[in-house]
Design goal:
InterPro entries: Endo/exonu/phosph_ase_sf, Endo/exonuclease/phosphatase. By secondary structure, the chain is an alpha+beta fold. 33% of the residues lie in helices and 23% in strands.
């Protein structure tokens, strides 16, 4: 019986490979459109930087959601099977391999080795109905550093009171703040305000943190939001703010740096290149953080210099429209 079943499968496969349709097309000559779409998907994944940004910032729009191009693989694979196209099946290997090379490593198990710092990053939302509960939820994961954005004057006292016992050191500039278990030094505002935005827009903060492994620089930043408009991907102010932040990071005298912030895009977006070219992203973890109800992108970032974030993960939802993200960080020798 087993031999008959194996033989039946072999004969079915042979007929599948040899079969022709009503137009006389074979599995190697049909499905060319599907094959072309597979090649296009692979090209967009590998050569996304070649997509121009001159019109509507199409390149940045693509890169902001680049991992989702991987959805083309199962769709094209299913279509190739339905069409019984060997050409399309072979072509689907291209985007599958490209996606695996770019993002497959993020899905691997996290490095379980020793770490020096645990950091949490969270845009708490200026409409958060429960700041006290949010603060307690973040502290429950026992990080060393907690960075918050969209702090409002009315909610700030709640965060300070809820975090005071475990995090005796904190600094706030405008709507961003840092809470730490370790002493802070050299606290100053970082000017990342784009042209055209009025005074009082303070979303950048720099602190020195005296850890048991020596002093590190920690930046907290909240870049401007982007918008999809009729003219395209509206990222101009965000890009300008990223250039200012990148300049501040370049001028930082301490070698070991941690950046915590809502950068309003993914690390693949070329608009963040002034920042991401100077910092390292975590090696493991997708950690999609926005929107909290159905996350499609990680726009909340934990980036490092002369340090390694072994993995990044999301924490349970709070009263914000973002999910918190956390990372274990290993500092390089000073």
């Amino acid at each position: 019986m087993a031999v008959d079943a194996a033989g039946s499968r072999a004969r079915h496969t042979a007929r599948w490979c040899r079969g022709t349709d009503a137009q006389g097309r074979t599995p190697w000559t049909r499905g060319r459109v599907l094959a072309a779409l597979a090649v296009l998907s692979a090209a967009l994944l590998v050569f996304h930087s070649a997509v121009p940004n001159a019109v509507g910032r199409l390149g940045s729009a693509l890169e902001a959601f680049l991992p989702w191009l991987g959805l083309a693989v199962p769709v094209l694979l299913a279509s190739a099977l339905v069409r019984r196209s060997l050409t399309a099946l072979v072509a689907v290997l291209l985007p599958a391999a490209a996606w695996a090379a770019l993002f497959g490593g993020l899905l691997l198990p996290a490095d379980g080795g020793a770490h020096d710092i645990t950091a949490v990053q969270h845009n708490v939302s200026d409409e958060n109905p429960d700041p006290t509960g949010t603060a307690r939820a973040l502290a429950r994961s026992a990080p060393d550093l907690i960075a918050l954005e969209e702090l409002t004057p009315s909610a700030l006292a709640s965060y300070e009171a809820a975090l005071a016992a475990e995090y005796p050191y904190h600094a706030v500039e405008g709507t961003v703040g840092l809470w730490s278990r370790h002493p802070l030094t050299g606290v100053r505002r970082v000017d990342i305000r784009p042209a055209g935005i009025g005074e009082g827009w303070d979303r950048g903060l720099r602190c020195g943190v005296r850890t048991p492994r020596g002093e590190i620089a920690v930046y907290v930043a909240h870049l401007p939001s982007v918008r999809f408009r009729a003219t395209g991907f509206g990222s101009g102010p965000r890009d300008e703010s990223a250039r200012l932040l990148g300049a501040a990071l370049a001028a930082e005298e301490l070698e070991r740096v941690i950046l915590l912030g809502d950068l309003n895009s993914t690390v693949d977006d070329r608009g963040l290149a002034p920042v991401t070219s100077r910092m390292r992203a975590p090696r493991r973890g997708l950690a999609l953080s926005w929107p909290a109800a159905l996350p499609v992108a990680r726009i909340d970032q934990i980036l490092t210099r002369s340090a390694t974030a072994a993995e990044i993960r999301t924490l349970p939802a709070t009263g914000s429209d973002h999910l918190p993200v956390a990372a274990r960080i290993r500092l390089d020798a000073s």
